[in-house]
Amino acid sequence: MVMLQRLRDFLRSPQPVRLPRVPDGTRYYAIGDIHGRLDLYEAMIAAIEEEIAAAPGVEHRVVLLGDLVDRGPESAGVIHRTQVWQQSRNVRVLAGNHEDMFLNAFRKPEQLRHFLKHGGYETVLSFGLTRDELASLEIEELHALYCARVPQSVRDYVAAFETMIRAGDYVFVHAGIDPTRPLAEQKRSDLLWIRGGFLDHEGALEKVVVHGHTIFDHVMDCGNRIGIDTGAFRSGVLTALVLEGDQRRILQARTDENGAVSMHHGDRPH
To answer: What residue segments make up the domains of the chain, in order of their start?
Structure first.
């Protein structure tokens, strides 16, 4: 009798694996690191708005995964465009490590020097400083100009960016999480900066982590995490992960060799 039961158990069809889900009735667009690429961002916004218009019965939510600024040419424009988009759409913004450096640079000249060496050069240009000023002025003078040219309202806006957003079986962060800590006990520094210890963690996590920060040639779906930073500032590819129910797909805005931007729709990431 026991042998027969074991045979039945062996032959019985396995239960289907439950896939991660976002809340019913919602569709999430998670957009990777923009890094001042306003051209790609504008194309992505237009594509998302077109999809939204075609699905009026769905609650649409957009999450920007941080690093709106630095390296690309139009950081100030990306910030302004995000503020405008938020007036008509549910758009939430995560802080990235480059927002951290952007804000720290207001504190003292040496922090500005560090910022300029790690992508901030293009950002300060986008706020009205000139190349001649950057080449000729002492760091103390540059710091005074930086503080004068970037409005306090912009600083306050960036300082209010979030560090973690949860959605069903997913959590959105900029860099990743410390796998040894519960989500409720994560440190801001890890959420914005972590790589080692997170990227090489192979076990299950509390939720599937959707993140940017570390550049990959393609969307990196590792089961426990999904990395969607495709290096827009240098590759010309800005990626969004679209989540609805238990389904995943990707949207990408890409530039060709002539600088023209086009949209590409992909299936479930690998």
So the answer is: 21-102+157-266
